[in-house]
Design a protein that fits this description.
Layout lengths: L4 E2 L5 E2 L9 E3 L5 E4 L5 E4 L5 E5 L2 E4 L3
Antiparallel strand pairs: 1-2, 1-3, 3-4, 4-5, 5-6, 6-7
The structure holds zinc ion.
Zinc ion binds next to loops.
Organism: Enterococcus plantarum
Protein name: Transcriptional regulator
């Protein structure tokens, strides 16, 4: 299932509105925020990181 993604105003982004994604849903239930000038998203609660791979937001494993 596709991970939910949201724009800056926490409106769900999808293939129809093509919003600029600013948050992605984290596995912990919070939102991971886009890091400034970085290509990944990081959750402030659990520090998981996510990257866009082949159109999907996937957890970045260290
Ligand atoms: Zn998290």
């Amino acid at each position: 299932m596709t991970r939910k993604a949201y724009d800056r105003w926490k409106i769900e982004a999808n293939q129809f509105n093509r919003a600029t994604v600013f948050y992605v849903e984290c596995n912990c239930g919070k939102l991971a925020q886009k890091k400034y000038q970085q290509s990944y998203f990081e959750c402030g609660t659990c520090q998981r990181k996510y990257v866009l791979q082949q159109g999907q937001y996937v957890e970045l494993k260290n």
